[in-house]
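Fold in tokens:
===
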Amino acid sequence: MNIDIAGLPSDRIVFAVSPLSELGNALHALSEPGHHPGVHGWATATSAALEPDLADRLLEAEFLWRNTFSDIFMPFAGVRGDDHRPGASLAEDLDILDRLDDERFVSAALEFTCTVLYGTGSASPLADATVRTRALEMAAARGPRQVKFTERLLADPGPVRLWIRRLFEDCDQAFFADTWRRVSVQLVADARHKTELLRRKGVGEALGAVSAAMSLDEEAGRISIDKLAEGRTSAVDPGLGAGLTLMPSSFGWPHLMVVHAPGWRPVIQYPVRLPDLPAPASVELLQLRMGALAHPMRMRLCRNLARSAYTTGELADAHRITAPEVSRHLSVLKKAGLITTRRRGRYVLHQLDLTVVARIGSDFLEGVLR
């Protein structure tokens, strides 16, 4: 994944923190604790303390943060004519979210149905009947709750937007305000340190301190992020208020997330701490599983399957290969005990077994989840 920064002044590269973005990461950690072994204690205690009504509403909306991390958690990057800075509080971030126009809000909220179109600049489902139909079809593969949400959002975005804002406000009251007070000190300190490093030693040093997965090609004026996902964006488009935002997260590991939707300011969200992981499996078992993962397409499939359950058709569509090819790759992964399969109605869903993958080692786990 690449970000063009040719000619971008260093003062347009900003380190900042966002309560709303961190809330999204916290919600993801609650939904997928297997991705985040370092916050198991927090996730267990927080989940146990949730009121039933709030827990039910979180289940209703969890596709916003579970298998894809919706850009609605970084609205400052998509508001036209804004200064592209996150709010100082969750309330300010939510006010910025309210300023995001309906087409951008709906496209971002439905990323779980339109992931293959992310980064292509395609029209919003509100404006394009073909994209709208596809969103509804992909929602059907996820289940009735996702279909209902998608239908409501496409029919009348306003009430759904209000519902989502109230959900985030209730999360703040229930658990996130206390969590933010605890983690924000570390995040603000990290952003301040990286800003000083950028000022004193330049972009390359600052990026190196953010993540070993990031590198700067000074001659080409390009930042490269070592992710299995492909994408390209520019931080020098004057129509967007040229610039790049980098944001630390206490809940982010192992994800290194990049906002690269056309018309949005590029944002890189990076983890500020790494947990210890379990020891790897036996050499014999490791060799069997690594053999299954040797094919580059199977590695790419694992990136999807690590985040959520997918049908063969969805994987074929996302990677532009045939369904029989996907089936052959899935068969190899299944024989190695790396994926699980379940049926939902007429759909067969496949998903990576993160417990097994964690035994392979932190490098692989971080690579497919980055």
Notes: The first helix runs from residue 19 to 31. The mean pLDDT is 87. The chain is about 50% helix and 10% strand.
